Amino acid sequence: MVDKLVIDPSSKKSIFILRDILSDELCPIVKNKRPIIVLCIGTDRSTGDSLGPLVGDKLKFLVRDKVYLYGNLQYPVHAKNLSNIIDEINIKYENPFIIAIDACLGSLQNVGKIIVDGKPLCPGSAMNKDLPKVGNLSITGIVNISGAMEFMVLQNTRLFTVMQLAEVISKGIYHSILKTIGGRKPNQLLENNSISENIEA
């Protein structure tokens, strides 16, 4: 399992670093035929918290055999429906490997960085929300500085920072899936939606 790793998305090698880390983690998962769930957490109602839905939107063509995506701009996975979505995933899939993606606040020197960790993330921790931990592996993007008035900090986060994080995270995930599983077959292009249709925004 990967140890905590910080990636600078401004580096030209950032996408390849993320791709290779994820590929190493996913290879045994694919061999064991476990379903891979990419769970993008957040809401488009707050700039700082929109990282997850943006990544989900960029990955909507990722879905293929044994790879499933939850959370995008149209159907976000957020505080109000997260518990239900986790229950749905655990009921629908046998022994799923969940890659959880979310925005977070951190120290000034880490703003704009990506953190990959081989453990669950704690959604809503910056807002002191009591939400279930989720993910066999977590990818968080540090969008702004932690401290006082987290709600206002998230609302006033630069969209550029969030978009840069979303671009690198989505491309890293996409290329790791291509590397470990390969591209979709033509008949798969017409199968599967990028997210469960019964999720309510």
Automatic annotation (TrEMBL):
One of its GO terms (biological process) is proteolysis. Keywords: Hydrolase, Protease. One of its GO terms (molecular function) is peptidase activity. Transmembrane segments: none annotated. Pfam families: DUF1256 (PF06866). Coiled coil: none annotated. InterPro entries: Pept_HybD-like_dom_sf (IPR023430), YyaC (IPR009665). This is Spore protease YyaC. It comes from Clostridium aciditolerans. The gene is yyaC.
